[in-house]
């Protein structure tokens, strides 16, 4: 995935060959997306294998066995991506998928147990809708959030763990009167009416807590119908009890942040890597002693070099390509019509 995305960026950005490599660009783009989907699927399988431990009844301890396994999967994934120099934007998209999977797995377990056939059942019947479980979940999720913050992924974690975090807050927060529930309605704004009804109806009070009146539950649900449900419908989302297994976000190929922007000179090991290809006659590598060492010298986004047409590069009698000693200045006049410039913002969600 890393190599395909890097090569695709070279082909798209190279001002001399971009227009002549469109088929290769399409193939590489599809390759990156397929690799991304397969990687997400494999890592979700690893996370699913340790989620039962995350939802274990064991009390928290200093070693934090309940969250250690999930954090190990996330940490090893981050180490792999960094070792392969995966683009940061791809890394964020991948961890968004993993955070959503954690959210989906835990949230669906809480709101549907023990009736849902879609959630893996444990050996014992556990009711997660209690104050004690709210505290446990909040503690365990806080450790995941702290890990994400150390990795620079706090925004992805905040966004895609939001529902299980708000569900945990709802379970452990005071729910004794209309004022308490009104406060919860504003702090648990990600939960729709079906999810709030399930959490509050299934909630098992402690002996010290008063039982929740059905009238108060209906009031909270009504507020969610007018706010959270309407927002979901305006975004084209269905009002469902369970979280969707798939994160409904499009895959986006990054436009920048690739290795070529930071690499200088010939990287160590590149000559050895290319040696078998040179011996097979598939490529040839020569170094230019007077080169500045920049890898973006022929790229369209390198504003230090003028953009020249292929025809201007082939005007020499010997047919060789060369750059002028001084930048060539081209003046382009744009005439704005009454209907505008024809610009649009794409994928700005």
TrEMBL record:
* Dilute domain ranges (all copies): 1-226
Q: Which PROSITE patterns match?
A: DILUTE
Under the heading Pfam families, the entry gives: DIL
Q: What is this protein called?
A: Dilute domain-containing protein
């Amino acid at each position: 995935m890393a190599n395909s995305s890097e090569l695709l960026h070279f082909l798209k950005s190279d001002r001399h060959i971009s227009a002549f490599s469109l088929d290769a660009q399409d193939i590489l783009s599809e390759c990156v997306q397929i690799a991304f989907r397969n990687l997400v699927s494999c890592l979700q399988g690893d996370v699913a294998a340790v989620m039962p431990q995350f939802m274990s009844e064991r009390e928290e301890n200093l070693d934090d066995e309940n969250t250690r396994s999930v954090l190990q999967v996330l940490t090893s994934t981050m180490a792999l991506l960094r070792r392969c120099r995966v683009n940061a934007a791809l890394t964020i998209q991948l961890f968004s998928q993993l955070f959503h999977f954690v959210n989906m797995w835990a949230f669906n377990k809480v709101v549907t147990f023990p009736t849902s056939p879609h959630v893996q059942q444990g050996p014992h019947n556990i009711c997660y809708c209690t104050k004690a479980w709210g505290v446990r979940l909040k503690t365990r999720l806080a450790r995941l959030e702290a890990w994400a913050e150390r990795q620079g992924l706090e925004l992805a974690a905040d966004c895609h763990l939001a529902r299980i975090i708000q569900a945990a807050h709802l379970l452990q927060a005071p729910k004794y009167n209309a004022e308490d529930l009104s406060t919860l309605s504003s702090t648990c704004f990600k939960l729709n009416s079906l999810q709030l009804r399930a959490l509050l109806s299934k909630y098992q009070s402690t002996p010290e807590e008063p039982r929740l009146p059905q009238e108060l539950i209906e009031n909270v649900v009504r507020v969610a119908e007018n706010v959270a449900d309407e927002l979901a419908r305006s975004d084209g989302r269905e009002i469902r009890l369970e979280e969707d297994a798939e994160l409904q976000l499009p895959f986006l190929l990054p436009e920048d942040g690739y290795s070529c922007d930071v690499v200088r000179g010939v990287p160590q090991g590149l000559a050895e890597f290319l040696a078998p290809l040179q011996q097979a006659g598939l490529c040839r590598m020569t170094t230019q002693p007077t080169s500045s060492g920049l890898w973006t010298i022929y790229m369209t986004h390198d504003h230090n070099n003028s953009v020249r047409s292929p025809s201007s590069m082939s005007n020499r009698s010997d047919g060789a390509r060369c750059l002028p000693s001084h930048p060539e200045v081209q003046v382009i006049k744009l005439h704005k019509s009454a209907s505008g410039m024809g610009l649009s913002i794409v994928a700005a969600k």
